[in-house]
Write a structure and sequence with these properties.
Number of helices: 30
Shape: globular
Distance between the termini: 68 Å
Number of strands: 35
Largest sheet: 8 strands, mixed
Radius of gyration: 30 Å
Structural class: alpha/beta
Helix content: 25-40%
Length: about 900
DNA sequence: GCTCTGCTAAGAGGA
């Protein structure tokens, strides 16, 4: 029997006498999630009573294979040795985190705070693991070593190592792997799976097993272990995979005819009974020096006790995360003096004044900084839980008709497969043409139909064929070929977005670095203890625009930081490029960053237009725009060359997420320039700014704020906005815009920029559609001849679409086209993606997109579809910054299409309608 | 109830 619900009460554990002798028990009251809301009692027996130590009312609890009985008319559940008890099952604990936790809970916590720094054992370990995978897939050893060392070129180079030297080290380890593979019948390929991604709904756990042999987990360790037994934490890691393999095996059995007699096998029983650890360094040690068991492969048996121990450990982590408690280390028996993390542990404890078993060193940072740390740490963890909810969507099998759920491409038709060099596979499938957020370059879970219970592999999307949408997303017309690469072949019928915690990890690292490693002087200005200081450069940088010139002067003269506020069309990117050049001329090494790849590429483009090209772009191949690939740092290749290119670059450009990578952490800069800073969270901004001595933030807090999944407001306010409020004197607002006609910009200027925004010159102010080649305004219907017009199509909203309004928008676009306006000069903006799809069905050759995606670009003619009728409920309309963005994309003509009554129900929108109705 | 960009992940070590 299975029970799942919210804990209402946890009684104190007690000892009772049973027919088998003394037993411990603990009663937990749970309110079931679904069905009748009557609370039920679950009695936890034996080791499961440990759960009571951390279980609290409000937490979710799942109990599997519990015994059920009736007592005084009430259903009671009993969880003994055959049962599984899972706390907060929606929180997906990573297997490597369980491993860290059994060593020491504080190690688990420290792993989250500071990211892995570049270290040779780590890089070598990664290469050995990759070679291991290659060998399992039948690749030649020397080919594998060469290829994997090349792939790790940049990291190896940054560590100052040579490829040959690393190859020698890796070969020693690989020899152990090869020797072991050649024993007996272990080479039969069908028996093997390499790098198996496992996600468990039942146990709230995920991880990637190095290999699975005959259904049993094999873990590779590049260390040595001369004991006969594997290390405890290594056994725990392998056992966690065994637990998840058992769940899969039980699912498979349940689905097959084998158990047709009605019997079932529990996942615990179905788990493999043996695990293998492969300590490859054992093969390389000198046999005369070392004694003990030098065989690399060590097997151990996996019983239900060990499996349940893993579940209980996982539960401790999930319970701690529920309250975001901070572990002290006293929870474990580990001896701090043997711990590699001891120094870090003591330093973090000292700086944050945390209790810890290892003790504290150093002086605590000021209380206001500690408070800031706690606030942002909690907010980032809330963001992590939101990512976990994305994982949960993987096992909620999507109904086929849910076309608005764009997290998966379903109903694919497998077309074929091809083996690539190195044993990887290229798989092709035909898509049904559904809209999806899956793009080229994405990491996805490819499956034969169900991502969790079916055959599934982590895959990279290589190509979504024939896409006619500029952003590479699959569009709605007919089938298209999809190509992915995977380690193991399968019949691809479905692709799911594979959620990543990478961004949350990086935010946490940035928070740690900014508060614990930056100098007090750098932090003083962030915490308002000191005003930022400036020099006044004598030079003139930009001739015909005082605000732009001031902005560059501020940036060049900044001792701490400068802020440049750039409303739409004010030449923000041009100014930024001029600023970077001025900094470089002074001799600075500059880091150029932004949240999105697009913004980073735009900034490079502006630099290029000003003749500056000594730039290295760090980023993934699929993230970097085609015409900017020439600046991209190839991270694979000769170590010395890779590292040299990065280290020698005067200007390095990367997204803030990439700034948090280990490779970038090895770099330092004089000045960090961040574009579109209004779209970044504080820790997101800090990921870039901590790499430099001073920084310049360029952005507009009146446009869209950071995108955050959880509802926590701590992250939705950008550092840019906070600093511009705290230090207005550090900011310069660019006040002359080169984009919009006078009338078009008037509303935004009044509502969002205190009337300060004005056209740069008469020509900008007076522009109209007649200025376009072959266009006459007289060819337009009379209601569209003004620069700003309003159309009420009298439609009605159904879901997030308004078909009548979509028709009206199509009519407006047709009128402009017939008046001679080129399709490329027209853009259509809608608040909802559903309406965008509705519009796309009517408009084949003009750009249609959401407000959010239109930020940063502009068109001669813009048509906005508001969708709403009745009233304006919904957060999309609450944030006025969204209309600021929508209305300021137009240069010569702006048409608002919406329901007059609905829009007039809100003051700001009412003023907008009046302005547009002129 | 809605907007949505980043990111390969997981990888090491010893009394």
């Amino acid at each position: 029997m299975q029970l799942r619900g919210v804990v209402v009460d946890v009684a104190d554990p007690k000892t009772v006498s049973t027919q088998y002798g003394e037993s411990e028990l603990c009663e937990v009251t749970v309110r079931p999630e679904r069905g009748a809301g009557e609370p039920t009692t679950v009695t936890l027996w034996g080791k499961w009573t440990e759960t009571a130590d951390y279980l609290e009312p409000g937490m979710e609890l799942a109990v599997y294979d519990a015994e059920q009985r009736q007592y005084q008319g009430e259903t009671q559940y009993s969880a003994g040795g055959d049962a599984s008890v899972v706390v907060e099952p929606d929180f997906l604990v990573d297997v490597t985190d369980i491993r860290a936790w059994v060593q020491c809970p504080r190690m688990y916590y420290l792993r989250k705070l500071d990211g892995a720094e570049l270290a040779y054992p780590l890089v070598k370990g990664t290469v050995v693991h990759e070679v291991f995978g290659d060998l399992l897939r039948g690749r030649d050893l020397d080919d594998a070593i060469e290829a994997q060392i090349e792939a790790a070129g940049l990291d190896i180079g940054l560590l100052g190592r040579e490829a040959d030297e690393v190859a020698g080290d890796v070969r020693d380890h690989a020899a152990a792997i090869e020797g072991w593979l050649e024993q007996g019948t272990l080479t039969e390929r069908d028996e093997w799976r390499s790098e198996m991604t496992l996600i468990s709904e039942r146990y709230g756990m995920k991880g990637r097993a190095d290999a699975v042999r005959r259904g049993m987990p094999v873990e590779l360790k590049t260390g040595k272990n001369t004991k006969r037994e594997p290390r405890f934490q290594d056994k725990i890691q392998a056992t966690a995979y065994a637990l998840m393999l058992g769940e899969r095996a039980a699912n498979t059995l349940a689905a097959s005819d084998v158990m047709a007699d009605g019997g079932t096998t529990s996942p615990l029983e179905a788990a493999p009974d043996t695990g293998t650890l492969l300590y490859t360094k054992n093969a390389a040690v000198d046999r005369n020096e070392e004694s003990g068991d030098l065989s690399p492969a060590k097997e151990f048996s996996i019983g239900s006790g060990l499996l349940q121990y893993v579940i209980r450990t996982r539960n401790e982590i999930a319970a701690m995360e529920h309250d975001t408690d901070v572990p002290t280390g006293y929870e474990a028996n580990a001896k701090c003096e043997y711990c590699f993390e001891q120094d870090t542990c003591m330093a973090v404890s000292g700086r944050l004044d945390q209790e810890s078993k290892a003790g504290q060193v150093g002086v605590a940072i000021p209380e206001e900084e500690r408070e800031y740390f706690r606030r942002f740490y909690d907010a980032i963890e809330a963001e992590r839980r939101a990512v976990h909810r994305e994982y949960a969507k993987l096992w909620e099998q999507l109904p086929q008709e849910r076309a608005d759920d764009d997290r998966a491409l379903i109903d694919l038709e497998p077309l074929g497969r091809r083996e690539l060099d190195g044993g990887r596979w290229e798989l092709r499938a035909r898509g049904t043409g559904a809209v999806s957020k899956i793009r080229e370059g994405d990491l996805v879970l490819a499956s034969d139909g169900h991502p969790i219970t079916g055959d599934a592999e982590l895959a990279r999307v290589e190509r979504i064929g024939g896409g006619d949408q500029a952003d590479g997303t699959a569009s709605a017309d007919g089938g298209r070929e999809i190509v992915v690469t995977v380690d193991e072949p399968l019949s691809v019928r479905r692709l799911d977005v594979y959620p990543s915690e990478l961004t949350t990890d990086r935010l946490q690292n940035a928070l740690h670095d900014a508060l614990l490693t930056q100098s007090p002087e750098q932090k003083d200005v962030l915490f308002g203890r000191r005003a930022p200081e400036f020099d006044e450069p004598a030079e003139t940088f930009i001739d015909n625009n005082d605000a732009q010139d001031d902005a560059v002067a501020r940036a060049v003269g900044a001792e701490d930081f400068a802020l440049v506020h750039g409303p739409p069309g004010t030449g923000k990117t041009y100014t930024l490029a001029r600023m970077v050049r001025a900094l470089v001329e002074r001799g600075d090494r500059v880091l150029l960053s932004a949240f999105t790849n697009r913004a980073v590429d735009n900034a490079i483009e502006a630099l290029e237009e000003q003749g500056y090209t000594d730039i290295v772009r760090v980023g993934t191949e699929s993230g970097v725009r085609e015409d900017m690939q020439k600046y991209r740092l190839d991270q694979s290749g000769d170590p010395g060359e890779c590292a040299g290119r990065l280290q020698g670059a005067q200007v390095v450009a990367a997204t803030t997420a990439t700034c948090g990578s280990t490779a970038m952490a090895s770099q330092s800069f004089d000045t960090v320039v961040v574009d579109e800073a209004g779209q970044l969270t504080e820790p997101g901004t800090l990921a870039a700014t901590t790499l430099g001595d001073r920084f310049v933030l360029v952005g507009d807090h009146q446009q869209l704020p950071p995108v955050v999944q959880s509802e926590d407001e701590t992250l939705t306010r950008s550092l840019f906005e906070r600093l511009i409020d705290a230090h207005p004197e550090a900011g310069v607002m660019l006040d002359r815009q080169y984009r919009m006609a006078q009338h078009i910009q008037a509303f935004a200027s009044r509502e969002f920029y205190d009337g300060q925004l004005r056209p740069a010159n008469g020509a900008v102010a007076a522009q109209k559609v007649d200025d376009l080649d072959g266009v006459t305004v007289d060819a337009l219907p009379s209601h569209l001849r003004e620069r700003v017009s309003f159309v009420d199509p009298d439609g009605s909203r159904t879901g997030n679409t308004n078909p009548t309004e979509a028709d009206a928008v199509a009519d407006v676009v047709r009128a402009y086209r017939e008046a001679g306006v080129a399709a490329a000069d027209i853009g259509v903006i809608a608040p909802y993606r559903a309406q965008v799809a509705e519009l796309n069905r009517r408009l084949s050759d003009v750009a249609v997109d959401t407000v959010d995606r239109f930020q940063g670009s502009s068109k001669e003619v813009i048509v906005v579809s508001f969708v709403a009728t009745g009233d304006l409920d919904g957060p999309l309309f609450e944030d006025y910054r969204r209309i600021n963005v929508a209305l300021t994309r137009a240069k010569k003509a702006l048409v608002l299409v919406g329901d007059r009554t609905a829009l007039s129900s809100d003051e700001v929108y009412e003023r907008m309608v009046e302005w547009a109705s002129g």
